Amino acid sequence: MRVAIVGIGGVGGYYGGKLAHRFPPGSEHEILFFCRGAHMEAIRRDGLKLSAKDGDLVAHPAMATDSASEMGVVDVALFAVKGYSQPEVARTMRPAIGPSTVVIPLGNGVENDEILKSEIGSGRVLNGAVYISTHIEAPGVVEQTGGSRKLIFGSPGGETDPYLPIEQMLQAAGIDAELSSNIVRDIWSKFIFIDAISGVTSLHGVTIGTVLATPELREQLVGLMREVESLSERLSVGLPPGIVDQAVERAGMFPPDTKTSMQLDVEKGNATELDTMLGYVVRKGKELDVPTPVHVELYEALLGKTR
Fold first, then answer.
1. For residue 130, what pLDDT is reported?
2. Cα–Cα distances in Å, from 262 out to 20, 147, 202, 203?
3. Element (H, E) at 238
4. Per-10-residue mean pLDDT for the chain, 307 residues long?
């Protein structure tokens, strides 16, 4: 298979690095990196250096390019870009996406598949989620600092057989990948965690460990999760019983000094995924008449911090 990793930031760098290391040029699978600027130049020159909890490596993809046309049509495209970049990058990638291309978004939102369908207009669009904390340390260098490194993907329609070869390829690269028959539930199971922990850490400028250890912040975290749970019930997502407790427990699996991706973006003055996460809940809550007062409060406060 010809596999494009779209975006070689923290997430794309980890999963793309694992794939390119296992399948170097000339292997049965061709791994292509879509990236830009100094990061792309460093990867072309020295390879991608990955420092991860499950081992360090240097990976050399078959191609590192900022041109989708240069890639040609691929069999699989893993979109590892943040929500605010997704529409633009999807349009840029159109030359590489054919009718049979399997497109898998790995971002934090719950509507990534719908966004990609509308922007690409071709391919078989699935959905996916990852549990990982990563960042670009320097051009050509990606560091993984936390999370279980789990990757879940699947078709919103539930079919699995056509996508088993992708699962097998990911697992062969040492990736903890799972092909899900209920990806909608799985996406929301992550969203209820990442939406809440991103909001609280970003607003207060504290680590995950501090949130869990501070009663008022932990209460705010749980309040956000309860609102997502209510919204999911209105949408008939089918989240499992006890999902809020499970999400809080998941937060405790990260090193206490972990900062969330959105928090880091706020601190650096970068664009954020505020609208992808909290903004989505506020908008959808209004649309479906589901009260989300905690989200509204944090969303408006964070808007003030990110303008």
1. 95
2. 27, 15, 6, 10
3. none
4. 97 98 97 97 98 97 98 98 94 97 96 95 95 93 92 96 98 98 96 97 96 98 98 96 95 89 91 96 98 98 83
Question: Where does 27-151 have alpha helices with state H?
Answer: 37-46, 68-71, 86-92, 112-120
Domain 185-306 fold is: N-(1-d-carboxylethyl)-l-norvaline Dehydrogenase; domain 2 (1.10.1040)
Cα angle: 72, vertex 75, 81; to 5 degrees: 80
Alpha-carbon distance of 254 to 277, in angstroms, equals 20
For residue 211, the model assigns a pLDDT of 98
Query: Domain 2-181 carries which CATH code?
Result: 3.40.50.720
| Confidence (pLDDT) at 234 | 97
Helix 215-234 with 183-204: angle, nearest 10 deg? 150
Interior/surface letters 220-232, b for 16+ CB within 10 angstroms, e for the rest: bbbbbbebbbbbb
**Measured in Å, how far apart are the chain's first and last C-alpha atoms?**
43
Q: What are phi and psi of 199, to 5 degrees?
A: -65, -45
The whole-number pLDDT of residue 133 equals 86
Specify the pLDDT at position 254.
Answer: 85
Concatenating the DSSP letter of every residue in 133-175 gives: EEEEEETTEEEEEEEEEEEEEE-TT---GGGHHHHHHHHHTT-
Q: What are the tokens at 56?
A: 């360090």
